[in-house]
Predict the structure.
Amino acid sequence: MHAASSRNKPSQVETGLARLKSDMLVIQTLAILDSRPILMDELERAVQGLSSLVRRCFGPCGEETLLFAPPDPPLVTADGHALLSAWRRGLKENRVGAAQQEPMQMYILHAVDGLFTQLGDGASQFVLLLYGAVKHATDAIHHDQSQQQLQCRQWSAGEWRQLAVAFGDLKRECRVLLGDFQSWQPNLQVVTPIEFVRSDKGLQTPSDEFRVAMANILRSGLFGALGEQVVTFLTRLVVEWIFVSPLVVDDRVDASILFHRVQQFVKAAPRAITFAVASSVYDSQILPLDEFILRKSILSAQSPSILGAHNGAATTSPPLRFLCVTCPLSLTFGSNHVTIRASDSYEAIIQAHDTMRAFMRKYVRDLRHKHDVSMLVSTDAIDDSVAEMCTQHGIACVQFAEHDEVMDLCTTVNTYPLASLFDAIKPTQHIGVCHGGVSRVRLQQSVYLRFHGLQRNEGLGQKGEEELARVAVPQLILNAPTKGVYKQYYKATTKALRILQSWCEPSSKSSQRSNQFELYSCRGGGATELALARQLQKRKPQDGVVHNTSSSVAQLARRIFADAIMEVVVILRGNMGAMASSDDSDDFNNQRRRNHTVLQDMTTLALHDDTQRHIGGNEPLQPLRGYVLNNDHWTDTVAGRISIPELVFADPKDYGLLHPWRRMQTIVIVVLEILEQLFRVDCIVRTSTRLRGDADAAEEFIDEIE
């Protein structure tokens, strides 16, 4: 009976964990590591491996790494998320069972992907901050345990649980602290008003000041991934791309309108961005709104001359009318499948097939002569007999077009595709008009169709949210000499879109109001991080936030996280100093000097909390300072004038080094969330190992954690 209870012991522990946490990845991690007595050592090893991948590429002077991930082309990148994504693919594909052998890394990489989806940036900082917190936590615990060994005692499960609760309390406190920053650092947040200029036609375009603000946000997130000139060009290209189509709104543009538009570009980016082989990226172009490249060509059985006068060569060519369908052009399968009941006689079967062919013949004839359609674009197959009918009537056919591309084409001309051959064709809703004709272009060693002079149909008359939902995303052609270089430009472009999306996302406070006409940023270069670390060191645990934890454990969690934040800033300064003229070479011997320098710089920050302001009166607020590169120094060489960057400790706002406020807020909260989860899991693992074979004690422990 006792053996049976012992065998049921792991399932009871896993049941208690399932009640405690709903995250399946944490549960899988516990199930795999249940036989290992110390989980934090496993976590430290896993995070250390990931941090070593991104440590040298963190910051605007990151080192590049050559990636080989067949069958993809080789990629030279300094983007942290690209490195971590390649490592994740290696765990899942190249090494058999590696994903099961490295559950901690897979869990953290899932969190990295979630952060990239939400923020577009901060993957390297997230991993480095998590590693710093884990390393300082394990060092502090090992030091405490070495002191307690003299008293013949180790950390109990209750103390591990208290540290997990302390990280949870600190997470809630940081959420309040970053939401109520006016009480301790009024100039922590940079506010940018949303400014648009209205034209005589009612169209609204961003003002020059707002364009500069957007460019600064994007440039700050892209520095280090590519060269400075390429980053400047791509940021200008992305801002121009988003607002090629002006906003048609009656009211003032707010954050929700901007967020919706950028969100549509993020969704359409994989289809809207096209690779073209060229020597320079600076020749990349944004297609006008009346042009569209369909990544398909006409049927091979049809001659290119079927386009005839619609190929765009003649200036007096008649407009081309096209119809998009999302169903097969056949009555024998798909949504148009028709079942005809007939006798078993051969004549009846032949008559039934003749009836279906007669229907398709009449349908094609009506398309050509009644609706003047010259092109059919289908997302499904086109029957050979139907293709022959279309060729006889001079209708060009495109089959197996991507559904999303067909929807984008319809959005460009403001129409809808036909879902069934039995639906009534309404010219104002289903037929698009192309005044410039269709030409055949060769991109990526394939022949595509390029529509010229597309006419936007105004017959649907959408208003309000329906109009905003159909944002016409113009296509972007990115030039690059190779596919590998193109992937870098594509990665940088999509990253810029996600950064802009996180910046424009309305805050939780604004959701209670009707509109939000301001966007919020924070200073880069470690300025915001240093201010937060200084505040955590100055403040004591709040009585209204701390639950069931001793003051010493709560203070230990604050010290661990503050030290981790400082270490991330030290890494940033070290990487920047390696390229600056005012710093020594980056080696291990300079680590202590850099730590001391960052500590001194942090102590110079003047945080104006409520107590200091009441005592000192209306003191002027000192600007927050961080580490930035000053490129104002030039020198003459044989090759010409070159810029010599200088590492300075100044206000990053003066240099345009700003990040979305949500970036810092999300990274801090997610790191503390993971620390809370994993320390709680470590507590359960240690207790389950200690109580293995004692069913009654395990049940009491499960009831306790519930």
User: Anything to note?
Assistant: The chain has 23 helices and 20 strands. The radius of gyration is 31 Å. Residues 530 and 559 are 13 Å apart (CA to CA). The longest strand covers residues 431-443.
